[in-house]
Amino acid sequence: MLPTARRDSSFLDACRRRPVPHTPVWFMRQAGRSLPEYREARGGIPILEACTIPDLIVEITMQPVRRYAVDAAIFFSDIVVPLKAVGVDLDIKPGVGPVIADPIRDAAAVDRLRPLEPGDVPYAAEAVRSLTGELGDIPLIGFAGAPFTLASYLIEGGPSKNHERTKAMMYGEPELWARLLDRLSDIAIAYLKVQVEAGARAIQVFDSWVGGVSPADYRASVLPHSKKIFTAMEEYDVPRIHFGVGTGELLGLMGEAGADVVGVDWRVPLDDAVHRVEAGKALQGNLDPAILLAPWEVVEARAREILAQGRTAEGHVFNLGHGVLPNTDPGVLARLADLVHAESTR
Ligand code: 1CP
After folding, report:
1. What is the DSSP secondary structure assignment for residue 222, as one 8-state letter?
2. Structural domain containing residue 214
3. Of the residues 72, 137, 232, 295, which has the fewest C-beta atoms closer than 10 A?
4. How many CB atoms lie within 10 A of CB 58?
5. For residue range 314-339, what is the model confidence (pLDDT) as tens digits?
6. Is the pTM of this model over 0.85?
7. Chain-centroid distance, C-alpha 190
8. pLDDT, position 2
């Protein structure tokens, strides 16, 4: 096999703002969610258990790559897997999401959150190693949850709309907040390192729920911790993607945190996002996942519009503005991947 840097990848090239033969495409949450073969492979196995079985991780990660002409695969795991691996008592409840038995709300609880060792997640390294063989030239994206989003689950105890307790700690107990986020960035770094050292060729940090934070608070209370992750990953020379939802006002700061690629949700057109990030960043996005439920003519027109807007960026990775919705027709995703390639061939 060729050394990593020599193997062709339009995805890696677009992330690095190099010329590409066509705009690369992958879909957030392409593994799991809408595929019938995913439901079949999982059978009755709870999701968090599935995330610890290497053969199953490989199979589920490969499923969308077999179906769609995507230019990257995303590792099948979850942002809470490393938290469970360090002993946090949590579960992913079907139809709900991550639920924490004892939410973290005081110093003693923060201090109990221990660092992640590679030996805590042997299944992740094993699965990534098998995947890099199976995927050939298609890069595998490793990922982790950003400190704010992980903290929101740990403090609230589960999914939440307004992240009230989370923000109350951020505003009211800044030292405790900083200690918690520092520990969470170390856990994210350790989980990302396991994936990259085993062969992942790009990373994405998901700060899904940070969009409710103001730019000033983001700069003061979130950015230093996310930045620690991007800085720690710099030595690996893999593209670093930083994504959040409702983060239109934060795109510049999310780039400043150290990302090579800034993920944009569907609220901000890419040709506007270009002006919100500093020079030297590629963009990823940003078709509203709900558009995939509309007739094909609508999908096609909107995808073309995004490709045109993406041409104003220094590099563009086509994606959805958030994850694939569970009731999306896989046939539409297959057609969309083909359309992106056909329309963007240079
Ligand atoms: O493509 C893939 O699906 C890859 C695997 C993957 C990824 C990248 C899963 C498996 N989860 C994630 C990331 C993740 N998990 C994020 C960041 C991305 C995003 O914003 O969508 C978040 C916020 C979570 C937490 C989580 N896990 C939720 C959200 C709950 C909420 O707060 O609204 C849910 C529903 C889960 C469960 C989960 N994780 C993954 C799957 C396939 C599922 C669905 C459950 C199942 O299939 O039983």
Report:
1. I
2. 4-11+21-260
3. 295
4. 21
5. 999 999 999 999 999 999 999 999 99
6. yes
7. 16
8. 37
